[in-house]
Each structure stands twice: as C-alpha cells, then as structure tokens.
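Regression test case RT-17, inverse folding.

Input:
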C-alpha cells in the first residue's frame, strides 16, 4: 500500500476489536500471505511488462530511495471527490473543499429537490453531530446503511411502495428495542445518525417504522414515538440514547455506557420500559 501522506492504520475502539498487535496480527499476516507493506510514496507510473504483470514505480515522500514494485494486480484509489459533472450547473449547491452536495437528512439535494445521493457522498447530510463527532457516512461501513434506508424512502415516496410496519405488542417493546440496541448494525455503525423508530398504534402497542435518519425524526415531528440510537461522546464510550416524543414534545434519555459495550443491560431495559409505558404500554 502506497500513499503520498502517512496512512492512519488503526483507531482505538475500546473494544475487543482493538486487541490486535500480538493476537490477531499473526493470523492476518497468514491470510494475506505475509502481511501488507506500507510505503509513504507517490506513484510516478505503472508499466505493464511482457508477461502481463506490472511494475509500479514509486517516488518516496519520506526521504527514502525510489522503489520499483512488481505486482500481479494494481488498484489505484484516486480520492473521494465525487464527479458531480453538470449537477452544480443544474442547481445542486455544494460546500467545503470537497464540494460535497448540501443535503437534507434524507440525502436529497437541499437546493434541487428530486436529486438524491447514495454512497460516501452522502456525508453531505451531516446529521446532528451532537458531540461534534461526524457519522461514518464517508466510509463503506456507514454509507451502506444510509443507502438501504434511502432505498426504502424512495420506494415509499416516489413509487408508492408502502413498507411493512410490523405491530410490536406492548409486552414485546422492551425486548425488541434492547435487541436492536445490542445487535442492530445500523445503530452501531451510524451512531447518533440512524435510529430505530417505533410509533404509537391507536389500537394499542407500537408499530415498527424501521431505521430512519435521527435528525429527520427529531426535527420533523410526527406521532408519539420511542426512538432508539447509540451515541459516542468522543471519550471512547458508546452508549444507548432513547428519545420519547409525546404530544410533539421530545425528551432525551441517555443510558450509562457499559464497559463491555453491552447495550441490552438491565438499566437499558428499565429505561425502554418506562418510555414505552408513557406511550400506553399496559
């Protein structure tokens, strides 16, 4: 792997995933056939040789000697600036050095309705950023969940395909939301950005309205609801946050973080149960 500027290779997650150096790295090296070599170098050129392989000529940016690397395959990643082509001329407003399109919480152009964005370009929809921490929309593990939510939104609003809204019985609300907090990949990877929404059913219990952008749920209003998400405050802690919306008033309740990152603890269940009762749980 070659990059003109030093690559950031790890993030302290304060989880078992962070235990890598002596325990997981030998296995990774075995799987990758000896590991990955990392060079601070710019690629001058890539040459195909007679046998169909390549020679990659690298110019070191750390003061070292230039390097020529033989390779069977080469992947060139050219950056994260999206090719908007003629969209700005058509009215799509952009912002920042990366010229990201300004977007609504549903990843729709804020200046040209009807134009939606999927993929890492969705980071133009910033979300709440309550603790100053951006979402993972600029990476695959965040953008993939945004895209799935967007697909459902477009199916409903543009093609009249109404999603299923399963009924959640009063006695099942606490278990359902605790399981979502503990196991839902959308909530874990898009902390403080995507949320599971349960809305009050006039017939009793709640309806599962699926995963939605948290900023939209809190700002747009709507029927009485319980909204569950995970958040991080920059200290390394990840913790559940529950919102109740009753009569248009939103109340936030944060749950203490768990050192083992268990989000279905007794405290979490008690908090969910309390909010569910406020919405008519028997």
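Golden output:
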């Amino acid at each position: 792997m070659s990059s003109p500027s030093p690559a950031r290779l790890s993030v302290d997650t304060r989880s078992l995933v962070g235990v890598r150096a002596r325990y997981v790295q030998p296995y990774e090296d075995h799987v990758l056939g000896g590991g990955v070599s990392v060079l601070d170098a710019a690629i001058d050129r890539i040459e195909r040789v007679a046998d169909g392989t390549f020679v990659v000529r690298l110019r070191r940016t750390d003061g070292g000697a230039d390097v020529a690397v033989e390779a069977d395959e080469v992947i060139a990643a050219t950056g994260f600036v999206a090719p908007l082509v003629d969209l700005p001329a058509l009215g799509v407003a952009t912002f920042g050095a990366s010229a990201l399109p300004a977007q609504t919480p549903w990843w729709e152009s804020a200046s040209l309705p009807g134009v939606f964005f999927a993929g890492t370009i969705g980071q133009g929809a910033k979300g709440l950023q309550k603790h100053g921490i951006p979402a993972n929309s600029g990476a695959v593990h965040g953008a993939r969940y945004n895209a799935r939510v967007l697909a459902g939104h477009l199916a409903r609003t543009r093609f009249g395909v109404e999603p299923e809204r399963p009924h959640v019985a009063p006695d099942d609300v606490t278990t359902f939301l605790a399981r979502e907090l503990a196991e839902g990949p959308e909530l874990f990877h898009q902390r403080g950005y995507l949320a599971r929404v349960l809305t009050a059913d006039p017939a009793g219990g709640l309806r599962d309205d699926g995963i939605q952008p948290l900023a939209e749920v809190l700002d747009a209003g709507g029927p009485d609801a319980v909204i569950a998400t995970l958040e991080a405050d920059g200290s390394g802690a990840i913790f559940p946050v529950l919102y109740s919306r009753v009569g248009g008033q939103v109340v936030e309740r944060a749950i203490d973080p768990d050192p083992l990152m268990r989000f279905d603890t007794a405290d979490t269940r008690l908090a969910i149960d309390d909010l569910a009762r406020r919405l008519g749980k028997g």
